[in-house]
Amino acid sequence: MRPKKTPPDPAQAEKIFAEQRRDAELRQKGYRERALALLSHVCASCGREFSGKRLSELTVHHKDHNHQNNPSDGSNWELLCIYCHDHEHEKYQLKGLVDGSAPVTGPERSAIGNPFANLDSLLKEKKEDTGADKTKNATKQNPPDQTESRNVP
């Protein structure tokens, strides 16, 4: 059985409440709270509405992908749900950009050869071969008229 917790003394309780008020004020000064106050609680991508406990699923997306660019009018922000926000950053990475500063470099070349290195040329050869096979099959199915090829007097 756990021992009962004793309530904090009034001085300690006041200190805890003061810290909580200070933290709340800091959060309100943060760009997430400002964005939530400025913008409607709707995902800018999929259009879903968020309220109550689900408001935590709504995230602030920086349109220029620069988290230091936080204008007071909110012109660099849009509210996205967590799924659309992930998708937006995936699209950005697919374009070759990570944080807007440098393109993503591909994986380094392996010391082992690439088994698909000359796949295009092999497929082209196969297409050419099948094209030649089709003409052979066509002549087998429809041989030229033998009577015309013989010299009949």
Characterization of this structure:
The protein is mostly helical and 153 residues long. It is 44% helix and 7% strand. It has helices at 10-29, 31-38, 82-94, 119-141, 146-149, and strands at residues 58-62, 77-81. Strands 1-2 form a two-stranded antiparallel ribbon. The chain is elongated. It starts with 9 loop residues before the first helix and ends with a helix. The mean pLDDT is 77.
Index terms:
mainly alpha, 2 strands, 7% strand
Brief rundown of the structure:
The chain is mostly helical. Helices cover 44% and strands 7% of the residues. The radius of gyration is 35 Å and the shape is elongated.
Q: Give the overall shape.
A: elongated
Query: How would you sum up the major sheet?
Result: 2 strands, antiparallel
Oligomer: single chain
The number of helical segments is: 5
- Beta-strand percent range: 5-15%
* Coarse structural class: mainly alpha
Helix coverage percent of residues? 40-55%
- Summed over residues and divided by their number, the pLDDT gives a mean of 77
How many distinct beta strands? 2
Instruction: Spell out the helices and strands N to C.
Output: HHEEHHH
Distance between the termini: 121 Å
User: Ranges with pLDDT <50 over ≥5 residues?
Assistant: none
Instruction: Give the radius of gyration.
Output: 35 Å
Widest sheet: strand ordering: 1-2
